[in-house]
Write a structure and sequence with these properties.
The chain is of the alpha/beta class and 454 residues long. Helix content is 28%, strand content 24%. The chain has helices spanning 24-36, 50-59, 68-71, 114-125, 145-154, 190-200, 218-230, 260-272, 294-299, 335-345, 364-372, 407-413, 438-443, and strands at 5-9, 13-17, 41-44, 75-77, 83-88, 105-109, 131-134, 158-160, 169-171, 181-185, 207-212, 236-238, 241-244, 252-255, 275-281, 303-308, 311-316, 325-327, 350-352, 378-382, 385-389, 398-401, 422-425, 447-451. It catalyses: 3-phosphoshikimate + phosphoenolpyruvate = 5-O-(1-carboxyvinyl)-3-phosphoshikimate + phosphate.
């Protein structure tokens, strides 16, 4: 059932301390490494993001007490209308200390979790059990063909259950490595590349991965290699070739940093407020997450980020907005945040690097265009450059935001409640995918969200 809320905000200042949950991206990688690590890799500060909790439930022992409250339920609601079930044979989940998946799952429903879908595809491809991997209706429209082709070239047997190139897929559990050298296009999703890099160390002959053409979302590949390095897995990256030999994991604890993509909504709140004094504990200036670039982007909107006391302080100074062009290729998950802030402030900026947005939780370009039209703002494409036209901008007294099963649509538009007296947000639970505490955190700085009774 979808729950809409009415969001209002008292005053135009935002002051408070917000403890963000762990990074979904870091956590998903850490969980795969934990599962492959033969008991050597531990994960600290697991994220509350529903996508990560779901992945943990699939990969970890069900008797793991520390996770029990989060993973025990056989059904996980993950931000859309569907309830995704993790189906288990023999009532047993694969043990975290198993080196490769050897028993257990028959059908795994990963819901809307794209990163987890891609990582599990590689993980099960080299295992020895037959697994059907499926997901939400949207997941069945998100391409996986390039990753499947790469895994098949390595020696995996994978079939499509419905549409060629898309989930659901059947992984046969009969891997025999044919080659160590494969190539993959880099401009569709970096998640395919990360998926291959995560399993590389388990390939008997290792991996030599050639990235063809442009690499999108590059910081996510760097995050993967940095986390592998924390587990003592070494690599070389020369030109467009990344090589990882077969190696053993060292005993490691991977500590998950707070989520910088989630932090971006606090920057947006600060940017739309007259006054802001926010503290986000745990965030450091050096981060594995490329989305920490939000500090630089938001400096253009008068937001100062000061790193001290083990976190970041945000303050706001009203000043003219400097930058006109924003390239989002390395930080696609920030695109909605920055586009909405510019639109709300009537700043006619241009955006590049938005190509991958069409294949995420929804077609984010179309979703942005549709919702921004409600405040009279256009997002116009010309040769892959998207420019805001704010000439007809008009903020209404009440606005309804459609969220399209996309957590980032809800979170990017929510700060508009600072400027619009009543904001109705569709399907508020959609935020659970990456930031379940979003609405309760907003309440700490004067937002009020009340459920809309049908
Ligand atoms: O590897 C990751 O953790 C992610 C990579 C990015 O995807 P693409 O590489 O498909 O752009 C990003 O949008 C996603 O939210 C998380
Ligand atoms: C694109 C995203 O996630 P995923 O691809 O993991 O579904 C996201 O969190 O914005």
């Amino acid at each position: 059932m979808k729950h809409n809320i009415i969001l209002t905000k008292t005053g135009k200042s935002a002051k408070g301390t917000i403890q963000l949950t762990g990074s979904k991206s870091e956590c998903n990688r850490a969980l795969i490494l934990e599962a492959l690590g033969g008991g050597k890799v531990k994960v600290e500060n697991i994220s509350d993001a529903a996508d990560a909790v779901l992945l943990a439930g699939i990969l970890r022992k069900s008797e793991d007490e520390s996770l029990k409250s989060k993973v025990e339920s056989p059904q996980v609601v993950v931000g859309d209308d569907e309830v995704h079930e993790v189906e288990v044979i023999e009532d047993k989940l694969p043990a975290s200390d198993s080196e490769l998946p050897t028993q257990g799952l028959k059908t795994v429903d990963i819901g809307p979790a794209g990163t987890a879908m891609r990582f599990l595809t590689a993980y099960y491809a080299i295992g020895d059990q037959e697994v059907v991997l499926t997901g939400s209706e949207r997941m069945k429209q998100r391409p996986i063909g390039l990753l499947v082709d790469a895994l098949r070239a390595l020696g995996a047997e994978i079939d499509y259950e419905e549409q060629e190139g898309y989930p659901p897929i059947k992984l046969k559990g009969s891997f025999e490595q044919r080659t160590r050298k494969i190539s993959i296009k880099g401009n569709i999703s970096s998640q395919y590349i990360t998926a291959l890099l995560l399993i590389a160390v388990k390939l008997p002959f290792g991996l030599e991965l050639h990235i063809e053409g442009e690499l999108t979302s590059r910081p996510y590949v760097e995050m993967t290699l940095a986390m592998l390095k924390e587990a003592n897995i070494l690599h070389t990256w020369e030109g467009n070739v990344i090589s990882i030999p077969n190696q053993a994991f060292a005993t490691t604890s991977l500590h998950i940093e707070p989520d910088w993509s989630a932090a971006s909504y606090w920057y947006s709140i600060a940017a739309l407020s007259d006054e802001a004094e926010l503290f986000l504990p745990g965030l450091r200036s050096y981060s594995l997450q490329g989305d920490s670039v939000i500090t630089e982007i938001m400096a253009n909107f008068g937001i100062t980020s000061q790193f001290k006391d083990g976190g970041v302080y945000l303050t706001k100074e009203v000043k003219p907005i400097g930058r006109k062009v924003f390239d989002m290729k390395e930080c696609p998950d920030l695109a909605q945040t920055v586009v909405v802030v510019c639109a709300a402030l009537g700043h006619e900026a241009s955006f590049t690097g938005l190509e991958t947005l069409k294949i995420k939780e929804t077609d984010r370009i179309l979703a942005l265009q549709t919702e921004l039209a409600k405040i009279g703002v256009k997002l116009i494409e010309d040769n892959e450059v998207y420019t805001l036209d704010c000439s007809q901008k008009q903020l209404p007294q009440r606005m309804f935001i459609s969220t399209y099963h996309d957590h980032r649509m809800a979170m990017a538009f929510a700060p508009l409640a600072i400027l619009i007296p009543e904001l109705e947000v569709e399907d508020a639970d959609v935020v659970e995918k990456s930031y379940p505490a979003f609405w309760t955190d907003l309440a700490k700085v004067g937002f009020n969200s009340s459920p809309l009774t049908p």
